[in-house]
TrEMBL record, chain A:
Classification lineage: Bacteria, Bacillati, Actinomycetota, Actinomycetes, Micromonosporales
Keywords attached to this entry: Membrane, Transmembrane, Transmembrane helix
Transmembrane segments: 27-51, 63-83, 104-129, 135-158, 178-197, 236-257, 315-333, 339-357, 388-406, 412-440, 461-481, 487-512
Protein name listed in UniProt: Transporter
Keyword Ribosomal protein (UniProt): no
Transmembrane in keyword set: yes
Origin: domain of life: Bacteria
From TrEMBL, chain B:
GO biological process: response to antibiotic
InterPro entries: AAA+_ATPase, ABC_transporter-like_ATP-bd, ABC_transporter-like_CS, ABC_transporter_ATP-binding, P-loop_NTPase
Protein name: ABC transporter ATP-binding protein
MF term (GO), any: ATP hydrolysis activity
Record organism: Winogradskya consettensis
UniProt keyword terms in alphabetical order: Antibiotic resistance, ATP-binding, Nucleotide-binding, Transport
Length: 531, 258
């Protein structure tokens, strides 16, 4: 009694359509996302096909596996860090149906291929088919098409397997720390690759890149995208081997995914934690010693608990720390120009604050308690920013110091800290109004990376908007630092703090009245679908 | 702080005037007028989907009505939300609690959020956890509580700041008989002490035992209202309810394959 994968696909499309029906804001976000994805797909297609039209066989042999690898890695990391995965078909909901495991995996996998990102990726890479056709004729194009199909299957399987495994790991306390290390470690693995490329490009060493790419083309990362070119170059024997490499990788990933899927279906709830009875008074249990015993203290104390106790938020924090550790270290090690570490840290600081762009979505309908208590918007938003800052400011400060001291520019540390704080403040200011105006509900799922249909696009878009806004708004400081030279080393810290604090207060002034005006509407938005 | 003309109907703890709410194509609440006398134990009855939750949400400021007014102890919920909201305790249904906190942390949170003195919060939280048999030293997260325990901690949150009006949405759903008896006792004492309780339910026996006043809703309108005896007459409340709502009674011929 095999249920066709078609039903899963149709179910997903139906959920997407119902989710959009009558919700203008969501439709708008979805359309914007789709248009941007289409633009990316068209430009990708153009880039790849032009290489073919120009008849640059060698260039294609370098560019295709290279961009292909970037695409695969993007599918691996972007869901973890920015987009989340579309889990409108929550595996746990199928637990009671008499479905065979294979059927379920096949169906969910097919459904995961139906989505804007997968279609856009596939459309962009079709340019490689065009190129293969001009370079090697019909047969080369056919083989490249087979390769691309394998490529998109690989991307989808990879992102599912990794997010699912990471989610399972995060649920159990024992493996949580392990998962953190694993994510940071795998992010750091990108380092050597990027370093090699970087130095090769700096030396304009096409030969060196060529060697790296020739190896890459045999790994699952590059193999799907280089098959057609092998035909064009007369290396027919390479095609079956690469097909086996890609096919085996997909099979392995699906097998891994199906394992963690089973765990997700059975263990929808983590076992209750045994906690020792506390002798402290209720208020002391909630509010840390250094916070005032009032509304603000209660809100900030609860936020601090939530950033650690709720899987979704913890995953956000962990991903942030992984990126925050990895990026600056990469820049410091690769010895970029003096301004590079500053620019990267601005990005990292903004990334931290951007996790607040959907701060009200995290707890969903529980926000009703604050609505009933009539919490003033100013207190609410300030307390939430405080809760996050407790976790992200220490790593930001440490990284700023390390990033200045390691390359021997210790004197620049205060100014760099100033810039980072300014960026953080500005990004908070941008994120706060967005979180009030453009909140969206998160699905009530077991996976911290789960997004409802189309939600991933919205999440990514809003985060990107906040990131770009924050980076632009910090530009005056960066320009100042560049123009002022040594003077900046002295005034950077106070100016940065003032700039960040000023921006934060401004953002608060804008967002707080908005929140006061639309608390019930916000509650309705974030609790949609979670009941 | 109190403007005399704001308190137009001091006798009503909760006064609703012409409340309307429409969701997309469906009219959930189609114009409701209701006065809940101060000191009464008021039961709002209705079948599933009658609009009870929507009505109560609009009454306490969780959902903005399309039309109409809601007054709590004389204060307009939508014009003067702070004054109105500080006087009520609410137990919403189908809404999550901040369930990643422990029970005591949640109570401390609610108390401070209501601007209470920390020492009072501490004293009352411990007492409530104890009385509601949730265990004063219990450090389990609320998310791991059973459904009945969640109702009890929700009720404790609503009671903590000693409001003069309690609005409870389905307070007895998923509660075991022992806990239900406990909750009934607490609520009865609260009303005896001068408080007002409004609660929604579709369990007739509970309503008959507790309420002084009832209103029956169906399809977004109030069909019958009055004191319990006025509504009930010499019949059982269940008979009146089924008649008013117009339910279908089984003839015995359907579902023959069962």
């Amino acid at each position: 009694m095999a249920v066709s994968a078609r039903y899963f696909v149709r179910l997903k499309l139906r959920l997407l359509a119902n989710g959009l029906r009558g919700r203008t804001q969501r439709v708008t976000l979805f359309v914007i996302g789709a248009v941007m994805a289409a633009a990316a797909a068209v430009s990708g297609y153009a880039l790849f096909s032009v290489i073919g039209v120009l008849g640059e066989q060698r260039a294609a042999e370098v560019v295709f596996p290279l961009t292909g690898s970037a695409i695969v890695l993007g599918w691996l990391f972007l869901p973890l860090i920015i987009f989340g995965v579309d889990e409108s078909l929550d595996p746990a909901r199928f637990a009671l149906l008499p479905l065979r495991h294979v059927t379920l995996v096949r169906g969910l996998f097919a459904a995961s291929l139906v989505g804007v990102p997968a279609i856009a990726t596939f459309a962009a890479t079709l340019g490689m088919v065009h190129a293969a056709a001009t370079l090697g004729g019909f047969f080369a194009a056919t083989v490249e098409l087979v390769g691309l199909t394998g490529g998109i299957l690989l991307c989808a399987a990879l992102s599912r397997a990794v997010t699912s495994a990471f989610a399972t790991a995060l649920r159990s306390r024992r493996s949580r720390d392990l998962a953190t290390v694993a994510l940071a470690g795998s992010a750091a693995l990108l380092g050597p690759l990027q370093l090699g490329l970087r130095s090769a490009i700096e030396r304009a060493d096409w030969q060196g890149i060529g060697h790296v790419v020739d190896v890459l083309a045999w790994t699952p990362l590059g193999a799907p995208y280089s098959m057609g070119l092998d035909v064009a170059a007369g290396r027919l024997w390479a095609v079956p081997i690469k097909i086996v490499v890609v096919g085996a990788t997909i099979a392995l990933l699906l097998w891994w995914w199906s394992g963690s899927l089973e765990k997700a279906m059975l263990g929808a709830k983590s076992g209750s934690r045994e906690r020792a009875a506390s002798q402290r008074t209720p208020v002391d249990q909630l509010v840390p010693r250094w916070l005032p015993r009032n509304r603000f203290g209660a809100l900030a104390g609860r936020e601090m608990r939530y950033w650690w106790r709720e899987t979704r938020r913890r995953a956000t924090l962990i991903s942030f720390v992984a990126v925050a550790l990895f990026l600056p270290v990469l820049v410091a090690v690769s010895g970029g120009p003096a301004g590079a570490s500053g620019a990267v840290l601005v990005f990292v600081a903004a990334l931290a604050a951007v996790s607040l762009t959907n701060q009200f979505g995290f707890e969903g309908s529980a926000y009703a308690a604050n609505v009933v208590a009539g919490v003033p918007g100013r207190v609410e938003l300030a307390a939430r920013a405080t809760g996050l800052s407790v976790y992200v400011l220490p790593p930001l400060l440490v990284i700023s110091v390390v990033a200045s001291v390691v390359p021997g520019r210790g004197a620049a540390a205060p100014a760099l800290i100033g810039t980072v704080l300014a960026a953080y403040g500005v990004a908070l200011a941008v994120a706060m109004p967005i979180s009030v105006r453009a909140a969206y509900a998160l699905p009530d799922s077991t996976s911290p990376f789960a997004m409802s249909s189309g939600g991933g696009t919205a999440k990514g878009l809003l985060s990107f908007a906040a990131l770009i806004g924050a980076t632009i708004a910090t530009a005056p400081l960066q320009i100042g630092a560049w123009l002022l030279g040594d003077v900046w080393l002295w005034i950077g810290l106070p100016v940065g703090i003032a700039y960040g604090a000023g921006a934060f207060v401004l953002g608060l002034r804008i967002a707080a009245p908005m929140l006061d005006d639309r608390m019930p509407e916000l509650l309705a938005t974030v609790s949609a679908g979670s009941q | 702080m109190t403007v005399p003309e704001q308190r137009r109907s001091p006798d009503a703890a909760l006064a609703l005037r012409g409340l309307v709410k429409q969701f997309e194509a469906k009219v959930a609440v189609a114009g409701i007028d209701l006065d809940v006398p101060a000191g009464s134990f008021f039961g709002l009855l209705g079948p599933n989907g009658a609009g009870k939750t929507t009505t109560l949400s609009m009454a306490v400021g969780l959902l903005r009505p399309d039309l109409g007014q809601a007054r709590i102890l004389g204060y307009d919920v939508w014009a003067d939300p702070i004054a109105a909201k500080s006087r009520i305790g609410v137990l919403p249904d189908g809404v999550r609690l901040f369930d990643r906190l422990t029970g005591t942390e949640l109570l401390a949170y609610q108390g401070l959020l209501r601007g209470m003195d920390p020492t009072v919060v501490d004293r009352r939280s411990v007492e409530l956890m104890d009385v509601l048999q949730l265990g004063a030293g219990n450090r389990t997260l609320v998310v791991d509580y059973s459904a009945g325990m969640k109702k009890k901690i929700g009720l404790a949150c609503a009671l903590l700041h000693a409001p003069r009006l309690l609005v409870l949405d389905e307070p007895f759903e998923a509660v075991d008989p022992v806990s239900a008896a406990l909750i009934r006792g607490i609520l009865q004492r609260y009303v005896t002490g001068g408080g007002t309780v409004v609660f929604s339910s579709h369990v007739m026996t509970v309503v008959e035992r507790l309420c002084s006043h009832v209103a029956i809703m169906a399809d977004g309108r109030i069909r019958v209202r009055g004191t319990l005896d006025e509504v009930r007459g010499d019949r059982s409340l269940e008979d009146v309810f089924v008649e008013v709502v117009g339910g279908r009674t089984a003839t015995g011929s359907e579902l023959s394959w069962l």
